[in-house]
Specification:
- This protein has about 80 residues and is mainly alpha-helical.
- The chain has one domain.
- The protein has two helices and no strands.
Length: about 80
């Protein structure tokens, strides 16, 4: 995706990252509850990781389109 396309769709891309965050948290919480080994409080929705993947993907796209080599970007 070009820099111009990212600028055009930044709101949509950000909304997708936010939606993925909440969907992942909910899925992780449900998975822990189903296993009978749920962490206390909100921790169960976070300990599985992956909830920030949408943001990692978005930021990776932004910085690589701005000229930073993908070899300098670490993600998931």
């Amino acid at each position: 995706m070009s820099t111009q396309e990212i600028s055009k769709y930044i709101t949509e891309l950000t909304a997708k990252a936010v939606a993925l965050y909440w969907q992942t948290r909910a899925a992780q919480r449900k998975r822990q509850e189903a296993s009978g080994k749920a962490d206390q409080g909100l921790r169960s929705a976070l300990t599985g990781g992956a909830q920030m993947d949408g943001f990692i993907d978005l930021f990776t796209e932004l910085v690589t389109q701005d000229g930073i080599s993908s070899s300098f970007v670490t993600g998931h």
